[in-house]
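WARN no homologs supplied; continuing
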Amino acid sequence: PLCWTEVPQKISVLGRQRNRWMRGTMETLFKHKTLFFNPRYGNLGMLGHPYWSFFEWLGPLIEFFGIFYFILVIGMGNPDWPFYALLLGFTYLFSVFYSSWAVVFEEFTFASYRRKRDIARLIVIALIEPIFFHPLTVWFALRGNFNYLIGNISWGKMEKKGFADKKKVKNHITS
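OK structure emitted
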């Protein structure tokens, strides 16, 4: 993982967090635009910056316009339902694979999960994430794009609860 953060307790706080993350991503990408596919910067220029540009910044925009286009095609009549069903199935399976791979990768690199049940629970969550959680994060990212473009770049207030047992968290991270 790139970093760890405290999970917001409310959807509204999650929305503000993801909005800020998108604005921070855009600010960083634009500030360091000379890195984009620049071999002088090695992996950062050839892999890191392009990944963040295409997947983290532009990904939600592409998803939104894809959904908008799909609705437009339905409104115009005669959509290619087999194609859209195949596309939806592929997108869902890719999302599940991507999330599951992240869980497996984290387990092999950091061994963060003490019980097999925790890993199984995360895999089950990967099955429902594309349906419930992902659309919310796309919406929050779109709002972040909009806020950045209109110049609303204040970070705002973040409500944090804090970790319940800081010693336990410290031991978990350092062990």
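Residues 115 and 121 are 10 Å apart (CA to CA).
OK
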